[in-house]
């Protein structure tokens, strides 16, 4: 039996503390030269696609703009269009909200990207927090939280009608629209649809409507459980197990020896979680001003404030602050962790740490043992974060016969092994 | 004949319509078209075909972002039907174009009319936060509001907001980001932008003008695009001073006379409407434009930021504290 091929996505390092800006090698987060260099590197590495996240409002903490992490990004569709101009093969997937877009303008833009790129467009479908992000949009906080997935599903269906070309119409709770477009036939028929929500509703939307899932289940066991769950939902919609690809987000740290990789990992984590960054993170859970605390000292004895939210626009949310604080205290006490050490620990994400051979082997194991179909890797540096991976890990994967040596298909759907 | 100041030369192209539908060969056509015009015209106005009945074509702002890396000199003024879309998204798309093109970006504020406007509103549906499809005065006001909000977003990051200061462990100086807190007639917009200030500070804003047809937008724009016959009427307006007058004329054999007439009437620039075939663009670039230059009617295209090339003043940031 032939071995499953690995899918590789490359996330442009973005607005969060995993992007290290304090390193001497860290470049511009907005200059086109950074995006171009990033794209050319991953295309040289034969990646399936570039992946861009979205944020439509500057993050805030304690009523001020969050200053400690990278902030600022281009318009997603605009920068992907520019990248389509300077690349030939690599897919271009943008995260775009269904909450603050409407089907005709957005579907037309995605059709434009698919044509500009000759069939390399993808759309990561997300929903947005209403009141916070809505302040930047005409419709404001227009959508009840409970209806956000319903709107997303109806949005995708309306978009697909548009991509079919000619006249389109949708009449329902969320859309009452009609018109015509000449955006057809598209090179891919329809752009690739990705979905990132992990709730039951999110999984169901992925099973019914998506071509790939960007997930957060990094360990082998968690990944296998998620993989089985989501793939199991596909038959309900008459879809084959191969029709939906599961790609967890992950990070990597390379070294010539395992020890070197571990040491580099520790150094990178210290860059990612600065002393002030550790306090800021703790404040998101404690919901209090903790600026007087020593990041190298113990956790605060005061309990979290469970009233209104101190920080806005952060992806990390802790629903039960008191429980989280209790668990963190227990962890810090049992291992003697300072505030900064603790934050470094609790904000760890899936990491591949080791030599190129080790990392290739672990990727291979996750894919062959059905914990994933591949990964969306996010490096910690802009724009050179994939240089080493492309030079060292990709050849290992190719030597194992689980990753392409040359692009064989013209479209993103083709790269992913999806039917048009 | 009296001598005239040579005009700045631009072209107007339609991203939608029958010549530029999305049928095959589309990328090649645009690549050769922009290739012929790069270094010849100072700027290209890319008219967006939103809800155009004879072919809506590609989104003009995305097309401009795609063209920018393959045409290193020409200014790209991308159209958007501002009544129908989100000012926030338009603002970041044009700011991104300015970053990608290193200072050659502009926005054409399009106001759709008649049956096409009705079709455009049917395509997005009746939504809160948008002006009423049939209320012409409200649509005019909304265009002006949208331009104002977009311009404020471009200023919402000061040029030096990214500090990367290891000492204070801060990437950003939050004091150099600003809420725009814009309140228009039908929408509000808080800001700041997600996109750092574009290289030009303010990309170029262009708008069309004709007597009696909703004129606030052109007066607040950097470029007022109008028919030669309307130049005198536009100049008579009390608020006409700040906009640079661009005469839009058809590519035809009266081109020489039309340019002279436009210059004498007070136009500083001309935008020649091309039908959009690469062959026509080749003839225009290789024969017509050299002849126009030889006649002293148009000046050679320059390089660098579009704002400077158009002779417009540097754009101060309205939110930056006075030095």
Can you tell me about this structure?
The complex is a heterodimer of chains A (420) and B (323). With 420 residues, chain A is α/β, with parallel strands linked by helices. Chain A is 39% helix and 16% strand. Chain A has 2 domains: 7-255 and 350-416, TIM Barrel (Alpha-Beta Barrel); 274-346, no CATH class. Chain A has helices at 32-44, 76-86, 103-116, 130-134, 148-163, 200-209, 220-233, 258-272, 275-286, 321-335, 339-346, 356-368, 387-399, 412-416; strands spanning 7-11, 49-52, 60-61, 64-65, 91-97, 121-126, 166-171, 176-181, 192-195, 212-215, 245-254, 311-312, 351-354, 374-377. In chain A, helix 6 links the parallel strand 9 (192-195) and strand 10 (212-215). In chain A, helix 3 crosses helix 5 (148-163). The two termini of chain A are 25 Å apart. The mean pLDDT of chain A is 94. With 323 residues, chain B is of the alpha/beta class. Helix content of chain B is 33%, strand content 18%. Chain B has helices at residues 26-37, 60-67, 87-101, 114-124, 136-155, 216-220, 231-235, 255-265, 278-294, 306-309, and strands spanning 8-14, 43-47, 75-81, 105-110, 162-165, 170-172, 182-183, 188-189, 204-208, 223-226, 244-250, 269-273. In chain B, the strands form 3 sheets. In chain B, strands 1-2-3-4-9-10-11-12 form an 8-stranded parallel beta barrel. Chain B has a two-stranded antiparallel ribbon with strand order 5-6. Chain B has a two-stranded antiparallel ribbon with strand order 7-8. In chain B, helix 1 (26-37) runs parallel beside helix 9 (278-294), helix 2 runs parallel beside helix 3 (87-101) and helix 3 crosses helix 5 (136-155). The longest helix of chain B has 20 residues, at 136-155. The chains are: A alpha/beta (420), B alpha/beta (323). Chains A and B meet through strand 4, helix 2, helix 3, strand 8 and helix 9 of A and helix 2, helix 3, helix 4, strand 6 and strand 8 of B.
């Amino acid at each position: 039996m032939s071995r499953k091929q690995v899918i590789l996505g490359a996330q442009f390092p973005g607005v969060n503390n995993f992007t290290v800006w304090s390193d001497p090698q860290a470049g511009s987060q907005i200059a086109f030269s950074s995006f171009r260099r990033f794209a050319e590197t991953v295309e040289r590495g034969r990646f399936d696609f570039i992946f861009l996240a979205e944020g439509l409002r500057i993050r805030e903490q304690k009523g001020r703009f969050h200053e400690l992490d990278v902030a600022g990004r281009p318009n997603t569709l605009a920068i992907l269009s520019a990248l389509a101009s300077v690349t030939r093969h690599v897919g271009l997937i943008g995260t775009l909200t269904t909450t603050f877009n409407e089907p005709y303008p957005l579907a037309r833009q995605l059709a434009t990207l698919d044509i500009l790129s000759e069939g390399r467009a993808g759309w990561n479908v997300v929903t947005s927090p209403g009141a916070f992000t809505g302040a930047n949009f005409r419709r404001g906080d227009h959508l009840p939280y409970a209806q956000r997935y319903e709107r997303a599903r109806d949005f995708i269906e309306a978009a697909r009608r548009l991509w079919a070309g000619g006249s389109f119409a949708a009449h329902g709770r969320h859309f009452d629209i009609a018109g015509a477009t000449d955006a057809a036939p598209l090179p891919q028929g329809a752009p690739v649809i990705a979905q990132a929500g992990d709730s039951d509703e999110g999984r169901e939307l992925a099973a019914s409507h998506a071509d790939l899932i960007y997930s957060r289940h990094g360990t082998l066991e968690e990944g296998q459980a998620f993989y089985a769950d989501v793939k199991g939902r596909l038959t309900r919609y008459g879809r084959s197990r191969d029709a939906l690809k599961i790609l967890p987000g992950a990070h990597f740290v390379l070294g010539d020896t395992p020890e070197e990789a571990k040491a580099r990992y520790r150094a990178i984590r210290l860059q990612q979680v600065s002393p002030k960054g550790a306090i800021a993170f703790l404040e998101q859970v404690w919901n209090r001003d903790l600026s007087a605390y020593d990041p190298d000292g113990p956790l605060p004895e005061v309990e979290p404030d469970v009233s209104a939210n101190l920080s806005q626009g952060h992806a990390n949310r802790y629903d039960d602050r008191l429980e989280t604080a209790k668990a963190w205290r227990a962890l810090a006490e049992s291992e003697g962790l300072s505030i900064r050490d603790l934050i470094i620990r609790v904000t760890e994400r899936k990491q591949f740490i080791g030599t190129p051979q080790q990392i290739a082997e672990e990727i291979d194991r996750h894919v062959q043992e059905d914990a994933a179909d591949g990964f969306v890797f996010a490096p910690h540096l802009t724009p050179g974060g994939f240089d080493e991976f492309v030079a060292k890990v990709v050849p290992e994967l190719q030597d194992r016969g689980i990753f392409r040596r040359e692009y064989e298909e013209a479209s993103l759907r083709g790269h992913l092994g999806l039917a048009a | 004949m009296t001598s005239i100041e040579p005009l700045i030369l631009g072209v107007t192209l339609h991203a939608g319509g029958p010549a530029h539908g999305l049928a095959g060969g589309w990328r090649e056509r645009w690549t050769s078209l922009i290739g012929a015009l790069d270094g010849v015209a100072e700027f290209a106005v890319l008219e967006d075909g939103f809800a155009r009945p004879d072919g809506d074509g590609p989104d003009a702002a995305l097309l401009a972002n795609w063209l920018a890396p393959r045409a290193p000199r020409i200014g790209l003024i991308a159209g958007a039907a501002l009544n129908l879309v989100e000012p926030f998204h338009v603002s970041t798309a044009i700011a991104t174009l300015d970053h990608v093109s290193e200072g050659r970006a502009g926005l054409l504020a399009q106001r759709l009319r008649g049956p096409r406007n009705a079709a455009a509103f049917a395509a997005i549906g009746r939504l809160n936060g948008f002006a009423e499809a049939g209320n012409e005065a409200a649509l005019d006001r909304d265009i002006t509001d949208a331009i104002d909000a977009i311009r404020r977003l471009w200023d919402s990051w000061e040029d030096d907001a990214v500090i990367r200061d290891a000492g204070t462990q801060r990437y950003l100086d939050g004091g150099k980001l600003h809420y725009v807190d814009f309140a228009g007639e039908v929408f509000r917009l808080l800001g700041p932008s997600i996109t750092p200030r574009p290289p030009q500070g303010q990309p170029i804003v262009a708008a069309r003008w004709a007597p009696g047809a909703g004129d606030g937008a052109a007066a607040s724009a950097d470029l007022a695009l109008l028919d030669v016959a309307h130049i005198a009427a536009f100049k008579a307006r009390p608020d006409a001073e700040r906009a640079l007058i661009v005469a839009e004329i058809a590519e035809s054999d009266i081109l020489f006379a039309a340019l002279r007439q436009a210059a004498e009437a007070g136009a500083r620039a001309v935008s020649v409407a091309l039908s959009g075939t690469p062959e026509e663009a080749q003839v225009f670039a290789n024969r017509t434009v050299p002849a126009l230059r030889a006649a002293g009617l148009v000046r050679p295209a320059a390089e660098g930021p579009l704002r400077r090339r158009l002779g417009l003043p540097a754009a101060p940031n309205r939110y930056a504290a006075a030095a």
